[in-house]
Design brief:
It is a single chain. The chain is built from no helices and 10 strands. It is an all-beta fold. Strands 1, 2, 3, 4, 5, 6, 7, 8, 9 and 10 form a 10-stranded parallel β-sheet that branches. It is globular and about 35 Å long.
């Protein structure tokens, strides 16, 4: 397991196998992992990218992001953002994935959440 906490600058994490645990991150984030998953909490990052061949991507934001890209070949994508008045533009390439969206959406919104899952689920609730 790779654990990264409290970094305010840009961060890139690459793991072949095993999981990534991120907490209290504020800079732009780029994570790539082969098998397993990422668990990220208290994120304040404006931009985020997470890619996994197999596993899950769980992202919990303490502050609304401007853009998220999350891609999983087989597994799930779960993105939680704070409830505010901003709408999200949701972009998905679901494959066989199930999609659940619990936030207001707008195809013209500047806040873009791009979630891709070949098989599994994509869940985007508000907290």
């Amino acid at each position: 397991m790779v654990v990264v906490r409290g970094i305010t600058g840009s961060t890139r994490v690459k793991v072949g196998a095993g999981s990534i645990d991120l907490d209290d991150m504020a800079g732009s984030l780029d994570q790539r992992f082969g098998a397993s998953g990422v668990e990220a909490t208290r994120l304040r990052s404006r931009l985020m990218s997470a890619t996994s061949g197999a596993g899950s991507v769980n992202l919990e934001f303490a502050a609304p992001p401007d853009g998220i890209e999350a891609e999983v070949g087989a597994g799930s994508v779960d993105i939680e953002v704070p409830r505010d008045t901003t709408t999200d533009r949701i972009v998905t390439g679901q494959g066989e994935a199930r999609l659940t969206v619990g936030v207001p959406t707008d195809a013209q919104s500047s806040r873009v959440l791009d979630a891709q899952a070949g098989a599994g689920s994509i869940h985007h609730p508000a907290r």
